[in-house]
Design brief:
Length: 388
């Protein structure tokens, strides 16, 4: 397996670590800004292409892709996110689109959450563009991957007959495992240049944390994640701490009395939820944060959307040690049974096998049938057996 990816100049250590997992790693330096790019977004309003697609479709990446495909006889190219669908993949033998989110859904939801009028207006226009572009990508690729049954149904409805598999996000259970360590404080993990995470911590600090401090005034909230924006830095203080980039999030999760996921906008499923549960940490989450995951509220985690109820849930877990232990154990068990890497990897490989088989059979005119769906418990779920 070879990887082609954008990187920042300071991410060389990350590249070295990934190299141990791949036959080869090829990089293109990312040139766009991390924060809200007002000028770029304003210019994009005059284009039919979505801003994110324009930003990621660069000559440097296209050249690197062309050179790599020309130099190797790849069976299949998998693209991570429909925002990369502006790249020309005509030289690839077979293609799979991995949808981490339904991107237009994420944008549409953010319209109701964002306070700034320019963001609301931009996201409204962008969601219309992304919806059109994303659905075109679903048709163009030979196969699609989504992370939940809910999203599988959306793709199947939009593109009847498309080969699409539900492959949930997963966790390395050997790495993310319970640890015996003293716990205190509240923890949130995530990329802090990502808008849903920025909104989550802003909402938590402004609307929820003051309610917690009325009862437990000394509780600290730690934000663990790279890419702090000015908006997040403005929240920091004696009881609101940010780590910025860390080599490993596991020590922070292990030491958390409660992990919080106050996500209000998004799509797909969230790794931060699975990682916390895999480490047997008690989790308080919004319904959006745990959406698409096969988890039972009240048993595996506590779900609350209203700030008052969210704060009350956090306080309850902090005060009830037996509840915290019980939630942690149930969450770990749920992740072990459904979200380990091995099971997720099997589902993805099944889709790859079917895409390649379908391409070969289509070329020869043979009847097309899903190999993965012939057994009593298929690894992958499909909208239909025939590609559109």
């Amino acid at each position: 397996m070879s990887l082609l990816t954008y990187v920042r100049p300071w991410q060389t250590q990350n590249v070295r670590e990934v190299e141990s997992l791949c036959e080869s790693v090829h990089t293109v330096t990312a040139q766009w800004p991390d924060d809200w790019d007002r000028a770029g977004r304003l210019r994009s309003l005059a284009s039919r292409e979505p801003y994110a697609v324009r930003r990621l479709t660069t000559r440097a990446m296209q050249r690197a892709l062309n050179d790599l495909v020309a130099a190797h006889d790849f069976d299949l190219v998998q693209v991570e996110s429909s925002f990369l669908c502006g790249l020309d993949l005509s030289r690839a033998a077979a293609t799979v689109l991995n949808e981490h989110n339904i991107e237009y859904e994420l944008l549409a939801r953010s319209i109701h959450i964002e306070r700034a009028i320019p963001r609301k207006l931009f996201n409204l226009v962008e969601s219309v563009k992304v919806r059109r572009t994303e659905r075109q990508a679903w048709r163009r690729f030979d196969g699609c991957v989504v992370t939940s049954e809910r999203e599988l149904a959306q793709v199947a409805s939009a593109v009847p007959g498309k080969l699409v598999a539900m492959v949930p996000n997963g966790v390395n259970l050997a790495e993310f495992k319970p640890q015996r360590t003293p716990s205190s404080g509240l923890v949130f993990t995530g990329l802090m240049s990502y808008r849903p995470n920025i909104d989550a911590v802003t909402h938590f600090v402004r609307e929820i944390l003051p309610l917690i401090h009325r009862v437990r005034p000394d509780e600290t909230f730690t934000i663990v994640g790279w890419g702090l924006t000015d908006e997040v830095r403005a929240l920091l203080g004696p009881r609101v701490i940010a780590t910025s980039s860390v080599p490993d999030v596991k020590p922070y999760l292990a030491s958390a009395a409660v992990v919080v996921a106050p996500i209000r906008m998004g799509s797909g499923t969230r790794l931060k939820v699975l990682e916390a549960l895999a480490m047997a940490r008690p989790l308080v989450s919004t319904s959006v944060a745990c959406e698409g995951l096969d988890l039972e509220p009240g048993r595996d985690l506590i779900v609350a959307d209203d700030p008052m109820r969210f704060a009350a849930a956090v306080i309850r877990v902090l005060q009830d040690k037996e509840l915290a232990v019980r939630l942690g154990a149930a969450g770990r068990k749920a992740v072990e049974s459904r979200y380990g890497w091995d099971a997720c990897g099997d589902r993805l490989e099944a889709l790859h096998d079917d895409v390649l088989a379908f391409k070969r059979r289509a070329a020869t005119g043979s009847p097309l049938q899903s190999a993965a769906s012939t057994g009593p418990e298929p690894e992958a779920r499909y909208a239909d057996s025939l590609p559109s």
